[in-house]
Amino acid sequence: MENSKLGDRFAIFAAKLGNQIHLRSLRDAFATVMPLYILAGLATLLNNTVFTWIFKGSTLTSVQYWGTLLSNATLNFSGVMIAAMIGYCLAKNRRFENPIAAAMVSIAALILMMPNTVFLIPDGAKKAVSISAVLPYTNLGTGAMFAGIIMGLVATEIFIRVSHMKRLQINLGDNIPPAVSNSFNVLIPVILVLSGLAIVSALLNNLAGMNLINLITTFIQEPLRHVGTSIWGVLLLYSLGNLLWLFGIHHSVIYSSILEPLLIINITQNIAAYSAGKAIPNIINVSQVASFGLIGGSGSTLCLLIATFLFSRNKVSRNVASLSVAPGIFNINEPVIFGYPIVYNISLIFPFIFVPALGVFVSWAATVAGWMNPCVTLVPWTTPVGISAFLATAGDWRAVVIQLLILVAGVLIYAPFVKINDKVAEKQAEEQLADQQ
């Protein structure tokens, strides 16, 4: 009874955490911009692998310009985009009547916090020179993603609160077009919020010689990212997210809201480095976790399905596995989660948590040892096993071998628990039959 109460309390806490409005807005925003990150990864993959196999010399340079344009429009503008999407999603979740204005304010707030003078190295030069009135991609793209998150949240919250002050609203009457009316309603709040943030930015520059981008990156983004996306941090958070399925709570409560944004920052940095021909900075990233710790879906349940076909004698389990294998190939495993089931099933929770953690750890160790390349492109989470590892690592066949070895290991780990689950199901069926008699 006490364990049941503890589980219920944990489930309630996890559900509240997942519904926390800022985390939910963060999850919604990253889900919205995800297609652009996938496109950036595809462009980088084609530019640096496929095109180099086909074209040479000046022709290659001309063709690669296509990929460069796509990278600039997606990856190198990602900080601004995430600020806008967070502002919009947070305003929608707050039920604010003008979410487009919130997105606009978030973008302007982020630009306000950027330095007016930057140091850049001109083409052909060796030393950086000071340049004014420019916005380099380093401040608009991956380098500003965390700043975009913070400014999107902070600026939108302030803007919504100020906009709800009746005295600051300008009412032009009922005969005015809605777009004009909404614009004038937020005119004074926009002026006040952005002017106030400009004062903050000016004080940072004049008194401390700093700007918010560098401040957030140095003191918040990098420490949090290094801890949260270390191998042990990822294993802890990812395993805790999978544990939530035992209580019927989607793992996105922890994964999509807390861990995934940090992992996405890592893969965007990898994409940028790979595109520029530089050393890859991050082994742990969203493609690595998804490709090697999400084989068949949460809990790497493709391993469970294969183990069921090989070792289970329970008719119900085998029927569920037969129905689940097609979507499972594309990492969609709700039929397994609720049909096998995983929810409230103690018999399978250990491999459900351990197998994904093993996949993440083994792929990390293999990359550290040089047995496979790091993941440098963002592949859709529905990409089947084998193909996902190949694409994520820009065509490294060794990553496919590692992924298949993890798959086999996962099947062997699930096997004894499948047999235990059969015995539990058989015992439950006997008890139900006895109760009916």
Automatic annotation (TrEMBL):
Q: Which Pfam families match?
A: PTS_EIIC
What residues does the PTS EIIC type-3 domain cover?
6-417
Chief subcellular location: membrane
Keyword hit for Transport: yes
Write down the membrane topology.
Multi-pass membrane protein
Tell me yes or no: is Transmembrane helix among this UniProt entry's keywords: yes
Localization per record: Cell membrane
Q: Where are the transmembrane segments?
A: 29-54, 66-88, 100-121, 141-162, 183-204, 224-246, 258-277, 289-311, 349-368, 400-418
Question: Could you tell me the keywords of this UniProt record?
Answer: Cell membrane, Membrane, Sugar transport, Transmembrane, Transmembrane helix, Transport
Give the superkingdom in one word: Bacteria
Q: Which InterPro entries match?
A: PTS_EIIC, PTS_EIIC_3, PTS_IIC_cello, PTS_Sugar-EIIC/EIIB
Q: Which PANTHER family match?
A: PERMEASE IIC COMPONENT, PTHR33989
Relate the protein's function as given in its record: The phosphoenolpyruvate-dependent sugar phosphotransferase system (PTS), a major carbohydrate active -transport system, catalyzes the phosphorylation of incoming sugar substrates concomitant with their translocation across the cell membrane.
Protein's recorded name = Permease IIC component
